Amino acid sequence: MSSEADRSFSACWWVVDELVRAGLTDACVSPGSRSTPIALALRRHPHVRVHVHLDERASAFFALGLSKVSARPVAVACTSGTAAAELFPAVVEASMSRVPLIVLTADRPPELRGVGANQTIRQPGIFGAYVSTSVDAEVPGDRPEQAYWRQIAADAIRGTLGPPLGPVHLNLPFREPLVPGPLELPASPRPGSTPELVSAAEPEEIQRLRLEIASTVRGVVLAGTLRESSRSVVELARRAAWPLVAEPTSGLRTPGALTAGQALLADERFSAAHVPDVVLQLGAAPTSRAGLSLVARTSRLVTVDPDALVADPNRRAGWTIVADLAAVAEETLEGLDARPETPWLRLWLEADLRARSAIDGTMDAWDEPAEGRVARDLSAALPDGTVLVVGSSMPIRDLDACMAPREGIGVLANRGASGIDGFVSTVLGVAAGGRPTVALCGDLTFLHDVGSLLWSARRGAHATLVVLHNGGGTIFSFLPQRELPELDELFTTPHGLDLGAICVAAGAGHERVARSAELVPAVERSMRTDGVGVVEVLVDAELNRARHGEVASAVASALDRSSG
Questions:
Q1: 564 lies in a domain?
Q2: Are 80 and 210 within one domain?
């Protein structure tokens, strides 16, 4: 037994216990020697559920997904050296999408830094501006006081809960030896509730917004990604007689929102003829180019930015309210009279019905799978209570373009930095929250994080991944890179891998779908089966590009008929 090791373990126990008092229930850990005190403190705490991952990057994205779905801080712990650097992508995403992540990195003591010691890099401050709090702690043997360790944990909780929410970093150096002797663990309280730190709008801001709405007939409500939505927004749009264009990740793609809003924005003739005087943008900046174009064209842009995302890439916002969305909507409704249906709203609603009919009529005729129809059919068929996790690149855009409004499901995506890395890990983290979980992604996104599938598929996870197998990164065929002779070599990067064989190696279920009508039954079978299942949807890349054009043409024709 070593007093040095005992002090290290005790310090970590106090840190973990303080995090638990503030609401921590889950932590992700990867194997390593220097992190022994942290790992043991997390594993031995009676109120912490530990998830072990071989790969630190996967561990961090798993924690990210679990934090998103649980709305609680989640810890991720690792050993020293490049292990800490592996956490960086998830830290960036957590920062940019406002997810409370507590990063615990083990380190060598200060006397071993900068002298060529093994597995030692410059860890203090490694995450830079992407964490709100960064603490390079004392060595436990130098600071044995319980109060110190509880205080830095309390500071971390305050930092991660903001406002705004986001990741924090505690760098914890330990001297050897690292394995403690038998210790009697103190009694610990059950996890507390995570305090909600809500920013309230000033009364003057609410009155200004109410007057803006009351004095403007030609307005649009545009809802981007939101951590928390509010049904009061639908009522606000109804009273204003403004169309509501809601991205799926806003939580507001529900009855009351336009059914084909993105199709209207993407139609050049319609969007040019229906430029609003005011756009009320909620949450993150628009995902689509069409949404960004709407924001750029409007005379006045007002943003409600509950997470302080600075969601204004075009620098068009006349003013911004940084406050809780539900409170803003509810307070604005007070004293706001309902405007009768206006010709402006009627034009949008009639065009929306025509566009939706054109989309559905065109897609229903497709026998071979195409990405837009997969997104539409999947989102419509999922049972209530399901969380749909959507990959970046084309899947999130196809879902935005094709998903019909509905109640009962949640839609999550890593849209902070919009990377494809860590997607499978994020999905499995969401699934660990206990809700039925289905994912939609491309084949490269799936393969980029396939190590997480290999590690986790046999470890009790339960999720269904719908993988669009189109032979590579086909989003580039919709971008200017499509004209380059190096398109396939440098951008599309066809992989030629057998996804079924990978699933067999991982111990995951696998079913291949080659017809549109086969998708929903395959997903339903996978959801009824324990473990991780992959539904591989075979998509012809050339045909898929043509299908996107068919839908756009059908919508344009339908809108031309309505204007004629």
A1: no
A2: no
Q: With 0.90 as the threshold, say if the pTM is over it.
A: yes
Q: How far is CA 391 from CA 166, 420, 488, in A?
A: 21, 7, 21
Number of domains in the chain: 3
Q: 307 CB contacts (<8 Å, ≥6 apart)?
A: 98, 163, 164, 165, 227, 283
Q: Hey, CA dihedral for 466, 471, 477, 480, is it positive or negative? A: positive
For residue 244, give the 3-state DSSP assignment: strand
Alpha carbon 516 to chain centroid, angstroms: 27
User: What confidence tens digit (pLDDT) does each residue in 489-540 have?
Assistant: 777 777 789 999 999 999 999 999 999 999 999 999 999 999 999 999 999 9
Residue 50 bridge partners (DSSP): 27
- Do 128 and 37 fall into the same domain? yes
Which domain covers residue 249, as residue numbers? Answer: 203-343
Give the integer Cα–Cα distance in Å for 235 and 62: 36
Task: Measure CA 464 to chain center.
Answer: 17
pLDDT, one tens digit per residue, over 339-374 is 999 999 999 999 999 999 999 999 999 999 999 999
CATH code of 38's domain: 3.40.50.970
Count the Cβ atoms, other than its own, within 10 Å of residue 134.
21
- Say how far apart CA 260 and CA 253 lie, in whole Å: 10
